[in-house]
Design goal:
The complex is a heterodimer of chains A (about 60) and B (about 550).
Chain A (H helix, E strand, L loop, with lengths): L2 H24 L3 H17 L4 H4 L5
Chain B lengths: L1 E5 L4 H17 L4 E7 L14 E6 L1 H10 L3 H16 L5 E4 L4 H10 L5 E3 L2 E2 L5 E2 L3 H9 L10 H9 L21 E4 L11 H13 L4 E4 L5 H8 L7 E3 L6 H10 L2 E4 L3 H9 L3 E5 L5 H4 L6 E5 L8 H13 L7 E3 L7 E2 L6 H11 L13 H23 L3 H20 L4 H12 L6 H20 L5 H22 L3 H21 L8 H13 L3 H19 L1
Helix pairs in contact in B: 1-6, 1-10, 2-3, 5-6, 5-16, 7-8, 7-12, 9-10, 13-16, 14-15, 14-17, 16-17, 18-19, 18-21, 19-20, 20-21
The chains are: A mainly alpha (about 60), B alpha/beta (about 550).
């Protein structure tokens, strides 16, 4: 795993934890959406996101 | 009016979105159309300005940079928010999201102001996936490798955009000029499974070289070593190696000029759809040529389960036939751009016919011969169980036993397609429709869920044979076998009583079963009565021997 990939993975873990807590306590709001956006953007880089395959685990 | 089209997939998907963009421009000449693509793939949108489309790019690397340089995470979210707010200033009246991805769904929601019409994936107010239009729901349920969709992605993109395509929408603004005699060959592909082996390409090129057919090799810089290996020792006059030496604009021009493009599903094949250049597509089970194969008229597909099973001689023969305008031996052909592929073999795909029945009100197909209806029987039982529990729930209120049963139903629905893949399109449709239910009052959710299980039960019932009917079916077969020999000897009187009983059994079966495919019990009965009226005993025997048993075999 490259250094960049490692850093992105760790960032994803942090953001994921934060967004989960936020949604749990305050519901899905604009801040939660910003976090989800970044999370998904990272996830696409990590899996070299293929649009059609990624639909299967979307919800 | 401001319209934003979001296409965040790769080169090929951007090319395949092009006809929808042109159709949008045609249908809304005064609209301000914006297109958002990834920075990395923006070259595929090189013709945007020529049809008055404003191009925006998603600066992924810039947004994610703080996470890599060790800056606070909030720097990245701030950058992304700035990007969203800048784009949002265009006050879009309509957003068409053609990227079926989680990121694009959140982005669409973030960009859509109140009153904005949205098609494609977005998000509900509670953050769950929202699929507002039927075309995107179809994509979610039925599109993808290993599934059975036969609508081309280009057509699905147009449907999501709400436009009808015409031939003129397939054009590439930057490519002009007359056709040459060259054949463009794309050696590589985006994935290893859909790449034709180097040693076999070498045989193809040698054979084309021997036939003096001029070829141009194209591809990315990473495919350069492959191209050098396969073209070694061949005359550069006949085999021009341009791999890794072109921009996308050059490639588009070469594809436009070529007589033929040969390759797997990849950017050159998608460009050829826009330049009208015929394609010989090499396809295998890890791609679905129906949905991403060539769209240009006269294109052909050579298919085998594994790419290496396609023989070099097949490729050379098909290229020669296509250049000569002669018939070939391809697996499939596309006679015109806006038609579907024509298979050069018997085409009776149960799965595709099932999908058509689910989405276009076509008849439900009979089960393939020698296949079992067990999966559908189980599906009926599961849907019936859920429907009854939900009805009870609505009448008497929730209880823990019903909740446990409904949880089991969900698990069974996940497992059923693994047990019997024939039910997969139906379960895919059902699960997608359930997912499409947005946040709502519990009563409304309960009512819609009940309605969906009722529909599922109805569909499964088409293939569901209650035990009582199985006995009648066996009796009908037995009686038919008794009658046929005497009918063929013109000795109707000997089997009159059997025949009357058979008519009675068929009437019973006709009353209790649902229409399946082109034939049903009632139509067999009508066939027998017609033959009887004409006193045509041979036709009577034929109907029993060919129609009745054939149909019954498909049910057992």
């Amino acid at each position: 795993m490259s250094d960049t990939e490692e850093k992105l993975k760790k960032a994803l873990e942090r953001l994921d934890k934060t967004s989960r807590e936020m949604i749990k306590t305050r519901g899905y709001n604009q801040d939660a959406r910003s976090l989800k956006l970044i999370e998904e953007l990272i996830r696409e880089q990590l899996i070299n996101g293929n649009t059609r395959n990624s639909t299967r685990t979307i919800r | 009016m401001a319209i934003l089209v979001i296409q965040l997939a790769r080169f090929g998907d951007i090319f395949q979105s092009w006809p929808a963009l042109k159709a949008l421009r045609r249908q809304a000449p005064s609209a301000k159309i914006h297109l958002l693509v990834r920075e990395r793939f923006k070259d595929a949108a090189l013709g945007a300005a020529e049809i008055g489309v404003v191009l925006h790019t998603l600066p992924t690397a810039d947004i994610l940079a703080p996470l890599i340089t060790g800056a606070p995470d909030t720097d990245a979210t701030v950058k992304l928010d700035q990007f969203v707010q800048t784009l949002k200033q265009n006050n879009f009246d309509q957003i068409i999201n053609l990227s079926f991805s989680p990121f694009s769904s959140y982005l669409t929601e973030a960009l859509a102001a109140d009153g904005c019409k949205v098609s494609g994936y977005t998000r509900h107010a509670d953050g769950y996936l929202k699929i507002p239009d039927d075309s995107s729901a179809y994509f979610y349920a039925q599109v993808g490798v290993g599934r059975h969709n036969r609508y081309h992605v280009t057509e699905i993109f147009a449907a999501v955009a709400g436009v009808d395509l015409v031939d003129a929408d397939f054009s590439f603004p930057s490519a002009q000029g007359a056709k040459s005699n060259s054949v463009i060959i794309h050696l590589g592909a985006s994935e290893e499974q859909k790449t034709y082996p180097a040693e076999l390409w070498r045989d193809v090129l040698r054979e084309l070289h021997a036939h003096a057919i001029p070829t141009i090799l194209v591809g990315s810089a990473s495919e350069r070593p492959l191209s050098e290996t396969v073209s070694a020792g061949l005359s550069e006059d006949l085999v021009q190696n341009r791999v890794g030496k072109s921009t996308l604009k050059d490639l588009s021009q070469w594809v436009n000029d070529a007589r033929l493009v040969v390759g797997a599903d990849s950017a050159p094949v998608q460009i050829a759809a826009l330049t009208g250049t015929p394609v010989l597509n090499l396809s295998c089970a890890s791609v679905n040529f129906w949905e991403t194969g060539p769209m240009s008229a006269g294109s052909r597909v050579l298919f085998s389960a594994k790419m290496h099973e396609i023989k070099p001689v097949q490729i050379v023969n098909e290229i020669s036939a296509m250049l000569a305008g002669a018939p070939g031996a391809a697996f499939a052909e596309r006679p015109a751009c806006l038609t579907t592929f024509k298979l050069n073999q018997v085409d009776d795909d149960f799965y595709w016919r099932m999908i058509q029945a689910l989405y276009t009100a076509a008849d439900y197909p009979p089960l393939p011969k020698n296949s079992s209806a067990l999966g559908f029987q189980r599906l009926y039982d599961v849907a019936d169980l859920a429907y009854n529990q939900l009805t009870k729930w609505r009448e008497k209120g929730p209880d823990s036993a019903s909740a446990a049963i409904l949880t089991s139903v969900d698990e069974m629905l996940t497992q059923l397609p693994m047990m019997d893949p024939q039910v997969e399109p139906v379960v895919g449709w059902f699960q997608t429709e359930r997912l499409r239910m947005g946040p709502a009052a519990p009563e409304a959710t309960l009512a819609r869920t009940t309605e969906l299980f009722e529909q599922l039960r109805w569909i499964a019932k088409v293939y569901h044979t209650p035990a009582a009917l199985i006995g009648l079916t066996h009796r009908a077969t037995e009686l038919a076998r008794l009658c046929v020999p005497s009918l063929r000897e013109f000795e109707f009187s000997q089997v009159n009583s059997h025949f009357q009983e058979l008519l009675s059994v068929l009437q019973d079966l006709g009353r209790h079963t649902t229409k399946v495919g082109e034939t049903n019990w009632s139509s067999v009965l009508r066939g027998l009565q017609d033959a009887l009226e004409k006193r045509d005993l041979i036709e009577l025997a034929d109907t029993l021997e060919f129609d009745l048993p054939g149909w019954m075999e498909s049910r057992t």
